[in-house]
Queue: 3 jobs
Job 1
Amino acid sequence: MFAPRSLGHAVWAAPQIAVEDLPAIAATGVRRIVNNRPDGEDAGQPTSAEIEAAARAAGLDYVHTPVMGMPGPDAVRAVADAIEAEEPFLMYCRSGTRSTIAWALAMRALDRAGPDEIREAAAGAGYDLSRLPL
């Protein structure tokens, strides 16, 4: 079930989404999906290709930058690009935590918010970034 968590104006993190969620996601005004989940992480999860096809069919941009562990430069750049596009976007991974960390690192790289503001926004969405060096 689609359960987005707001991190701020026009940006959401979410646990794994399903192919059938894409029309509803598009109806919310989201314009881009950033998938931070590696294919094959769990049995039965939809593949990146399946989500991408559904996203594009719903008129959404789609980026896949898989994250295992801490987000690397490619994942942070993909989120920074989404932030800079200033269009509503949704990021997801298994729980939303890796996506939220990528967002936090992108926000700092772009100098869009300070550490306390980022941690507060993440906490408001249910993600604890208290130990993340920002």
Job 2
Amino acid sequence: MQVPLSNQVDVAGFHSEATRLLAQQVPPDTVEWSAAPAQAVEEESLDAERAAIRNRAARAIIPQSFVRMSELVVLHRDPGRFDLLYRSLWRLVYEPELKNDYGDHDLARLRQMAQAVRRDIQKMKTKLVFRPLHLRGEPEPVAWYEPTHYISESVGAWLAKRQPGAHWILLTPDRSMRWDGIHLLSAPAVAPGQEPMAERSDGDWARVLEAMPWR
């Protein structure tokens, strides 16, 4: 059974589909998860809780500890993460004693993946450096970063909440983001190797950024 997700970090979609599959008693070895490549998205508010499980059935079936871990694991670049998550969830539901087995390989792998994502998020927050570029005559803080995992949106949301009055542009190979003080806007990703602080002049990068279709 093919189960498509809308994007590489579609944790809400995973929770919804996993709940449906569990309710239908669909075993993990018959499910093949697929996620669409990362793309620019519509303008969105940071208040939109995209990862939230909104229906009562999902909250009843999926343990909250698993929900919290899955929100990190889906940001990992391992292409088999959705298969591992659903297999582990199936086992937790049908093997209740599994939650006390700290030597289980699947659950240990999930914990390792979640920890790797936590470290990557902390590293990006620590190492992110903004440099002012003049766009349309005004200085705009711009930063380039190439994270190990799919954490750009998570860190972008953190930055916006941390400095709500600031304006900035964050470029990554997965997604380009612009915070205008109210909304987190998106544009196509920037390819690796096009670091604005190294390979191109400020003028070149200003022209690239001004031409981006921010939405």
Job 3
Amino acid sequence: MSAPARTLTAIVPTGSGSRYLQQLCKHWSHKFAVDFTPEHGTVALPFSTLTLDADAAALTVRIALEDGDAEAAERAKGVVASHLDRFAFREAPLPFDWQEE
């Protein structure tokens, strides 16, 4: 029996959240199913669903893992953070304080 699903959330303080959201969604749209506006985006990654919400002060990042695998959770956090840090090179590394829901 697999472990229950997990959701990891990080609220990343940045005034450029909308820009980073759009860059990441466009970047991954060639490989994954992506839907986004300037304020909200979703990406269907192979191991999880990524949801991004941007406002004037922060980018909220949610990773919904299909199972509770700790290794998959760490991989997902690393992939998302490293990609966002590339787009946010002027203010990287961004502070990701991951919380589990």
